[in-house]
Structures are given as structure tokens and as C-alpha cells.
# Entry
Amino acid sequence: MKGGAGVFGLRVGALLLGIAADWVLTNSLGIERYGVFAIGISWLSVLIPIGALGMNTALLKVVPAESGAGRTELVCGAIAWTSRRMLLASVILGALFAGGVLLAGERIDPSLRGVLLVLAGFLPVQVLSVHRQSVLQAFKHPVLALLPEQVLRVGAFLALVGGLYLWRGEQLGVLDAAWAYGLGMTVGLAFAAFWSRGQTPSAVRAAVPRIEASAWWLLALPLCWNTVMRLLNSRADPAMLGWLLGEDGLTSAAGYSIANRLASLLLFGTVAVNAVAAPWIAELHAKGARAELQRLVTLSAQGLTAYALPLAAVLVGFGPWLLALFGEGFEDSYGTLCLLVFGRLVTCLAGTVGFLLAMTGHQARVAKLMTGCAALKITLNLILIPSYGELGAAAATVVMLCLFTALAWRDVRRILGVEPTILAGFGWLPKAPATTEGDER
# Structure
């Protein structure tokens, strides 16, 4: 997989920068104010895929397929058309969200209200950055695709936060952190836009764009729903902790966010593999090359397993010490960390099952699974969070992850005839599917 070593190295750098940024924030803001910031980022994480409309993921299917067929006019049209729709949708969504925050008035904590308004203003910036990164990824430049979001944005954010702290010589305000985060997103967009234009083939730039709006809408909207449901499952917990627990939820949201940050290191390998493999998965599936697809998936699964097992042992074994690095009170979230590590480990060992289904034309099936699991998770959160706080949110996450993974693993074997785990290396392969199912709309 071309670019795999570069992607892995980039992810290592992003990991170190992300931990450094969280460490600076938690020690500068304190646990309660960091909780306010975490709730704001939780809301932003859900808004971004809604504003993107699933078109960033659709580009990963459309661009490789049409480029391989030599239809440069459709590639040009898809890039331009999705960019305009994503910008318009994110502007409208940001304005509606900001209006809702203002209408809520005193029902929202003043510091949280300020954070939400600042981040809503920067929503179109991040959505456009996501679009440009998808263009780079679709043209098989995974390192350049990840660099703006994973390194440059976080690096700029860290530099701004550190600069403010040194300049003022006092504890950082949560609004300062929100502005620094937004300006970091702007830096990421600037580089992503520059590189995406430079890496777009000249034949595509020179082509007269052709639009197939109906087909692209039908492709993008289920992908949008998938992503929103996935982020509701993975990023909405701090917002729900703040909503259901009130002021007590600030500390819980902060502790959960750091525990989830550490547990999400297990996904580091998954995201790196997906970034490299996405265009190849779509291309091999379009050609009907099931044997080559199985080899690609097996190689990915072996790498994920070798990465995830030792890392999970380290996170559980050194969890209390790692949490204490982020400041006083964070070590109380060790139980949360252990639960989340278990859930993430299950998803890693199963392979990239949901992504594999989505990239082979079965995004509607993934949407159904995601919707059912999101509904279950939210229901469990409503039941468990009032009594068990962040532990209840973590338990709901584990149940959701295990259920989704099991169902998606079954569908990958049955529909694609591919074994997504390392068991394929031992000859445990499913039967070839009787028919090739297309996109379920």
C-alpha cells in the first residue's frame, strides 16, 4: 500500500502533538474549564459531518472510479460541485446552530455559550478543509491529505495556546482556547487548499465539468448519515454528560474526554490504514478483484492486530499514571479508560468492517447498523449517565461498539465474501457471495 510508511509516521507525529495539546490545555484550563471546552468540541464534531453532507466520503469513491475510466469531466464536476454544496450547507448549519445557542439564553452556561458561538463561526472553515483533504486522498496522496488536519492544525493550535499563555503569564481562558482552535483550523484549510490544487491532475483542471447531481446525492446522503451516526456514537458523550449532569457534568466530560482520547489511540492504526486503502478498496471492488481485495484486507488486519494488542496492554497497565499527567482529578477516570480500551480493541481486532462495507457500495446497510446502534447508545446513555456518570457513558459505548462490530463483520463475510480479520491468514475464508450486491439505496 503506497504511502503506508508515510501515513504511519504522520500518525505518530499527530499522536504526539495531540497529547501535547491536551496536556497544555488541561494544565492551563483546569479540569472544569477543560470540560467546557470538551463539550464545545463534542458539538463541533457532530456538526462537521452534517455540514459535509457525506460528499467528502463520496469523493473517495467517485474520483478513483471516474479517473480510472478516463472521465475527467466527471472528476472535475464532482470536485467543484461538492465543494460548493459543502460550503453552503456548513454556513447555513453554523448560523442555525449559533441562533439556537443564543435563543437558549441563560439555560446555557455563559462560558459554554461563548465557546459554542466561536466554534460555530469556524464550522465552514473546517468543512472546506475536510473537502480539500478528501480530494488529496482520492488522488492517492494520503500523507498530504492527513497533514493539514492531523499535524498543521494541531501544531498551530498548540503554538497559539502556548503563545497566549506565555504572553499573558496567567491561566488560559476557555474562550482563548476556542479561538485558538478555530485559527488552527484556518491554517489547516490554507495548506489543504494549496496542496489539493497542486496535486489535481492538469487534465482534470482543464476539463469542462460535468455534473451528475442525482447520482452523487444518492451516494453522499447515506454516507453522511453513516458518519453522523458514527460520531454520535464516538464523540457525543461529553455533550450528553454536560446536558444530563449539569455543573457536575463538566468534570465528568473532562475526564471522559481524556480517557476517550487515550483509548482512541487504538484507532490510530485503523485511520492510517483507511487513509491509504480507501481508493484501492473502491478500485478493486469496481473491478471485481475479490482475491486482491482479500489480500489487501488481510494485510491491513495483520497490521492492526500487531498494533492494537500491545498498545491496549500499555494503556491498561499504565492508565492511572497516564491520566495523572493531565492534572489533578483525571486519574479518577481510570475505570472509564479500561472500559473504552476494551471496546476499541474489539473494533481493531475485527478489522475495518464498517469502512469496508461503505467503500464497496453498501453504505445504506452501514447506515442502518449505525442508526440502530446510535439509538441504542443514546438510550443507554439516558439510563446510565444519571446514575453512573462517565462510567455509564463508557459502558454504553462498549455495548454499542461490540454490537456494531459483530453485525458488520457478519455482513462483510456474507456480502463481500471477504474475511476482515487475521483469521484469513490461517485459511478461514468465507464462501464467495452468490451475487454481487450493489449500492443499497
Remarks:
- Residues 236-425 form one domain.
- DSSP finds 18 helices and no strands in the chain.
